[in-house]
Amino acid sequence: MRLVIARCAVDYTGRLNAHLPLATRLLVHKGDGSLLVHSDGGSYKPLNWMSPPCRLESEQPGEEEASAGVTEVWRVTHQKTGDALRVQIYEILHDSAHELGIDPGLQKDGVEADLQRLLAEQVDRIAEGATLVRREYPTAIGPVDLMVRDAEGVAIAVEVKRRGDIDGVEQLTRYLELLGRDPHLAPVQGVFAAQEIKPQARVLAEDRGIRCLVLDYEDMKGISSGAPRLF
Fold this sequence. Notes:
By secondary structure, the protein is α+β, with helices and mostly antiparallel strands.
C-alpha cells in the first residue's frame, strides 16, 4: 500500500463528472489497484475513489499545467467502464509504501455471524432448491459470506449484513467483479441479505442487478418475531 500526502486537484470523468479543487489530501493506492482520495474529515469515506479493476499511470503535466505548478499527473482508469480519475499533483509532502500482508478479514459480531450461519443452513431462502457451496468463499480481496448454486446450477454470491447500506453493496459489487472472471462460476448472481436494507442501498443494488433479501432473524432462529401473520 502506498500512502501519499500531497497538494493536489482531482477530476473524475465517466458516468458522472466531479472536481476537487487544489488542497492537501491523502492518496491511498492499494495493492488491488484501487485509489482513494481522503481529506482530514468525513470519517472513513473518501472524497473520491476508483475501484478495481483499474490501472494507475503517471504522466508528465502539460505546459499549461506545469506553468501552474503541477509536477506530476496520475491517471487511474477503470479497465471495464473507462471511467478515469485524474490527479494533478502540485507538491508531495509525504510518500511511503508498506507491505501489509494477507488480512484475516473482518470478525463479525454475534448477530451478523449467526445470520450468516443460519442462512447457510436455510439456503432455500436465497433460491428454491439452492445448495450451499461454501461459507466464506475466498476472493483476492477477501471472502464473500456465502456461495450457493440454485436448482439450475447458477452460482450466487451472498453478502450478509445486519444493516445493509451502500458500502455493503459496493463490497458485494467488488466481489462479483472478481468472481465473474472465474469460468467455473460465471455468470455469478448477487444477493444482498440483511435484517434491514436502507432505501439508497436497495436502489443501488437493484441498479446493478443485485437482488435484495430481508432476513427475519427471530424467524430464522425458529422464534416468533411478533409480527402479525395470517397463520
